[in-house]
């Protein structure tokens, strides 16, 4: 079964600093979003890519993707929302009902290797309801008590690093599972609110589903801060050398 991918690309990129919306910022002269869509389109597992664009940038994004050869894959652009979760939900709504496997991939992860895309799709095809690519942590992590005034933060504990993973995208799902958890999250939001979840697999966990991890890749990192763009340029230059 061929999978569809949703690409949330409607964020502003506040942490990257002033400029165009993050998905439209350039890496090697090409917008991050175009890199990300190409990385997905390169996978034989992916037949359709739905981009959730900044609401005021749908026509611009559609034109941009039209102008880049994308292996003849079906690319659609819809308006994203005010949160990543909403953007994913709106993208998901544009996927035809017969598609059984959906990948969700951040526009902000332009350099994900096609092997990671393939591995995530394969794990869903093999029977998992939710799959995330992840890598071991380099740093030790501590849980703290954040201080309202910004003073030194008391440490609560240090989770065993060997059991921690840093999670990437694309995350892969049985379509009906992803749809159901997004609908539930929307309903519970309307009735008072839940603490925010920062990835789609987190929603599956919240509602009792099973999520499994497959190996991610160091080049699937998210472009979040200015230094990440410096690193991404270096990785791209190395690939082109
Ligand atoms: N995203 C989205 N819709 C939103 C917010 C985020 O589609 N309302 C997307 C971003 O475009 C990005 C992905 O979700 O591809 C991951 O989010 P993040 O890295 O946080 O991007 P931004 O929200 O744009 O950045 P920041 O949080 O620094 O503003
Ligand atoms: Mg954000």
UniProtKB/TrEMBL annotation:
What does the entry give for GO biological process?
A: isopentenyl diphosphate biosynthetic process, methylerythritol 4-phosphate pathway
* Pathway listed: Isoprenoid biosynthesis; isopentenyl diphosphate biosynthesis via DXP pathway; isopentenyl diphosphate from 1-deoxy-D-xylulose 5-phosphate: step 2/6
Q: Which SUPFAM superfamilies match?
A: Nucleotide-diphospho-sugar transferases
- GO molecular-function term, one example from the UniProt record: 2-C-methyl-D-erythritol 4-phosphate cytidylyltransferase activity
Keyword Transferase recorded: yes
Extract the InterPro entries matched here: IspD, IspD/TarI, IspD/TarI_cytidylyltransf_bact, ISPD_synthase_CS, Nucleotide-diphossugar_trans
EC number(s) stated in the UniProt entry for this protein: 2.7.7.60
The UniProt site entry described as Positions MEP for the nucleophilic attack is assigned to: 161, 222
Instruction: Return the similarity comment.
Output: Belongs to the IspD/TarI cytidylyltransferase family. IspD subfamily.
- Protein name stated in the entry: 2-C-methyl-D-erythritol 4-phosphate cytidylyltransferase
Organism listed in the record: Kitasatospora atroaurantiaca
Organism ancestry: Bacteria, Bacillati, Actinomycetota, Actinomycetes, Kitasatosporales
